[in-house]
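Customer escalation, tier 2.

The customer says the design service returned an amino acid string that "doesn't look like it belongs to this structure." They asked us to rerun it and document both sides in this ticket. The original structure tokens are below, unchanged.
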């Protein structure tokens, strides 16, 4: 059993982020989620923040620290997509996705590090995607932002590995969420054909890997990319 910690999950009001927050609550941790709208799951503290806004994140962290204590586990999950083919992609389509998915992780993690260094314990878990390394037509912005998290985690590992802080990447494949449910049935069937496991994953399967990475059992794992993708990426 791991020690009870204070956890912050960005974008914890729906989908994978929500499942991650639920699992941390079930394991007895004190859990806060950031959300632009909506509420996190039962047992969590929801704070309003947009990860592209440093001042809002500072205020959110102050609120969490006052209510729960210093954050030592951060899950950078908040992300957006603006999919379109490269030739049609505007500068704004590119910048907005990179600023949220990569810039957001930078801002959140940077704000959390002081508390981790003081505690000589920290878990930085970045939620990437199989397309970060596998690629996906129409997702140059998203794929770039998600693959960048690998360099982020590995550089942070070199900077802070000796201080009891690990930094890892979880790369989900096709997961059953509200977003995938909106795809046409033919498209969903086609995607399923390409997955060796023959099915989509569940958000709780991603959450199980994330909480394990945050546990004492994973203290010697850092700079790793862990796929949760039914075999579609094959280690890409």
């Amino acid at each position: 059993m791991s020690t009870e910690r204070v956890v912050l999950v960005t974008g914890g009001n729906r989908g994978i982020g929500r499942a991650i927050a639920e699992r941390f609550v079930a394991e007895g941790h004190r859990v806060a989620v950031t959300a632009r709208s909506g509420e996190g799951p039962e047992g969590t503290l929801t704070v309003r923040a947009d990860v592209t806004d440093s001042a809002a994140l500072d205020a959110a962290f102050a609120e969490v620290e006052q209510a729960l204590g210093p954050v030592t586990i951060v899950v950078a999950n908040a992300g957006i997509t603006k999919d379109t083919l490269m030739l049609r992609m505007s500068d704004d389509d590119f910048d907005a996705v990179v600023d949220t998915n990569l810039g957001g992780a930078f801002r959140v993690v940077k704000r959390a590090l002081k508390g981790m260094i003081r505690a000589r314990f920290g878990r930085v878990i970045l939620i990437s995607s199989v397309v970060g390394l596998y690629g996906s037509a129409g997702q140059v912005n998203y794929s770039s932002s998600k693959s960048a998290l690998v360099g982020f985690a590995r550089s942070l590992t070199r900077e802070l590995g000796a201080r009891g802080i690990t930094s890892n990447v979880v790369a989900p494949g096709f997961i059953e969420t509200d977003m995938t449910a909106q795809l046409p049935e033919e498209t969903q069937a086609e995607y399923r054909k390409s997955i060796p496991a023959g099915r989509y994953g569940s958000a709780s399967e991603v959450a199980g890997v994330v909480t394990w990475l945050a546990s004492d059992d994973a203290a010697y794992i850092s700079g790793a990319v862990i796929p949760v993708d039914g075999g579609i990426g094959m280690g890409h």
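Tier 2 assessment: The sequence is consistent with the input. The mean pLDDT is 95. The first strand starts at residue 6 and ends at 10. Sent an explanation to the customer and offered a walkthrough call.
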